[in-house]
């Protein structure tokens, strides 16, 4: 039970937002969810399909639309803010929607929660901390202090995407300190699971294999990401929303470090293909080397633990989901690949 009966979830028709909404509907039957989503290329009504109308309402609109945001925030008990432009590669082609949505959009929400004194949770990324050296480049091969991101790590984002997320985090921190806004922040590592847009690494490779296209690996494939199942991200956000301390930053991860080539080989093997049946392609400009989260604060202060830590089984379920739901992604596949092909990726 919680005091929150009505929550506003921005970006709830995107990948992680929709998985959060589904988690709320399943696990918290006393809560009504309003989703505010612009339905950009990454938002999809189908991500909310099948959810009961008396539990979830979708409002199609922009988080930077101040009158709309003012009205929706006035009617809610808490705002969980997922809406963003989220893809690094897109941000390298055109940063402008990233600045508009991630910074101006977050500012617009902050002004509304400030006016109505509403609880605000800001969903952010570990990428605000830049990258870490690869373990093999660390003395003692990475055993010891300072090898993971902590809430004290300095901000040093690399891409237009991560710099706009960093900017939005700093706005939240300032609104807490200067105006007493009741906000928390989470910085989470790479999510995977159902409903992830096929521009992203795991779904791109799975849907390529299903379409008879060779998977594409950037650079030498040694870059490391720290994978967490999106369901565990949802439970972490819920724990912070209900038990977190106002003004605090929480790092969310599930000890899921893997290099990209290992993940790609696992996908190929799972799908019955030779493990070297992929192309090395042009590296991403400014490509972050390694992310790794120290989630001690989540464990010790909020008692949160991830459940889906068996990556092999989570990956197999995710592959099965894309295999079973080809109608969900097929119409977009050619366009996504054409966009990548322009950059030899
Ligand atoms: P996504 O791109 O799949 O979804 C973003 C959603 O926001 C879409 O539904 C889109 O329509 C909506 N949106 C975009 N601009 C909007 C606007 N101006 N107004 C209203 N809605 C708008 O993204 P995702 O991967 O689900 O990420 C969600 C959030 O989680 C983002 O804030 C992202 O920075 C953060 N995050 C993502 C990851 C990850 O691995 N994907 C990890 C950590 C944090
Ligand atoms: O760490 C959290 C972040 O994770 C989130 O903030 C972002 O919103 C989310 O998109 C994700 O960012 P990444 O850039 O790490 O994810 P992406 O899926 O784009 O790429 C994962 C890794 O795979 C990265 O090292 C680049 C590489 N890659 C990606 C694609 C699309 C490839 O090698 N080939 C590809 O085709």
From TrEMBL:
Span of the signal peptide: none
Pfam families linked to this entry: GDP_Man_Dehyd
GO process terms (BP): nucleotide-sugar metabolic process
Enzyme Commission code: 4.2.1.46
Required co-factors: NAD(+)
Chain spans, region Disordered: 140-164
InterPro entries (UniProt xref): dTDP_Gluc_deHydtase, NAD(P)-bd_dom, NAD(P)-bd_dom_sf
Superkingdom per UniProt: Bacteria
Enzyme's top EC category: lyase
Keywords: Lyase, NAD
Compositionally biased region (Basic and acidic residues): 140-150
CDD domains found in the cross-reference section: dTDP_GD_SDR_e
GO MF terms, alphabetically ordered: dTDP-glucose 4,6-dehydratase activity
Reaction equations catalysed: dTDP-alpha-D-glucose = dTDP-4-dehydro-6-deoxy-alpha-D-glucose + H2O
Listed SUPFAM superfamilies: NAD(P)-binding Rossmann-fold domains (SSF51735)
Biased composition (Low complexity): 151-163
Family: Belongs to the NAD(P)-dependent epimerase/dehydratase family. dTDP-glucose dehydratase subfamily.
Protein name per UniProt: dTDP-glucose 4,6-dehydratase
Organism: Leuconostoc citreum
